[in-house]
Amino acid sequence: LGLKGEAALNGRTGRCLKFDSDTGRFEVELVSTAASGGGSKETANDAKRVVRIRPGNLEPLLTSKLSHTGRCGKCGAAPGDPGVKKLKYCTMCFSTVYCNSECSKAHWKTHKPECARRQESLVRIDRKKAREAIGDLSIGTINYSTGKSTCTSGGDGGGTSDSAIGHPFTIKVQIPMTQPHLDARAAAAMRALNGRGEWAGAELLSAMCYNESRDVHVMVSVKMGAEYESLVRAVEEKGMRMNNSARGVKAYFTARLLDSGEVLLVDTHAPVEPPPPW
């Protein structure tokens, strides 16, 4: 969408192969127009051509809101099949869906090892504890694409996503460019505040998590320990690099609100692809 240099590609269908964090573009393999329902734009050498496209010029064929999609992990049933209205996620790993409790129980021995592995990628953030860790501090943030800095209130208003509680949605996690807490000497110096072992300058070390509408906006302070470090490692390893950073500084993951919206669960197993343009 919106391409000027190769306008003939606008409206074409492609398959995302991978995201290049260095260039900020996806490698997209064009699908033949016969397979995608077209016919007039394809040339003899165009099929399976690989092009590099910015995320903002791509539109997913699936709906923007994630839903209980796929097939039952046990019997393969899908929504719309006889007797199947919807599928429900495994409530421990949220990676496999089932059409009923009987299939879930019957598949448990097979699913158990994968369930344990996927749970390791889940970061559970208590929003009340996150608000207490930040307090009334204001956090300075920077848009890595534009270089524009803003001052954001650290308080999480406790809002809920436009998606129903328990349903998945996309969340953006943005971390500071530097991580002095990972250096033992820097950490010791920061904890020297008043001899109480508290974090000095914690307002400078917070991971910002928010959805597109920003009705969910959680600041995870370094004071939260494991939750903060899990988010940082996931973004550094799987996120997008900006401004020549050595590691990733922002990433989009699947998240959901649990416990009446008081818990934000972020699944860092794999980033959302293609990343949204927000």
State the share of residues found in helices, binned by percent.
10-25%
Low-confidence stretches: 34-44, 61-68
E-strand count: 13
Shape: globular
Sheet with the most strands: spatial strand order: 6-13-12-9-10-11
Elements, N to C (H/E)? EEHEEEHHEHEEEHEEHEE
Structural class estimated from helices and strands: alpha+beta
Largest sheet: 6 strands, antiparallel
Count of alpha/pi helices? 6
Gap from first CA to last CA: 16 Å
User: How large is the radius of gyration?
Assistant: 21 Å
Mean pLDDT: 76
Give a short synopsis of this structure:
This protein has 278 residues and is an alpha+beta fold. It is 18% helix and 24% strand.
List keywords for this structure.
single chain, 278 residues, alpha+beta, six-stranded antiparallel beta sheet, three-stranded antiparallel beta sheet, 18% helix, 24% strand
Describe this structure in words.
- This protein is an alpha+beta fold.
- The chain contains six helices and 13 strands.
- The strands form four sheets. Strands 6-13-12-9-10-11 form a six-stranded antiparallel β-sheet, covered by helices on one side. The chain has a three-stranded antiparallel β-sheet with strand order 1-2-3, with no helix packed on it.
- A hairpin with a 6-residue loop joins β7 and β8 (149-153).
- The longest helix is centred in the C-terminal third of the chain and has 13 residues, at 226-238.
- Residues 34-44 and 61-68 have low confidence and may be disordered.
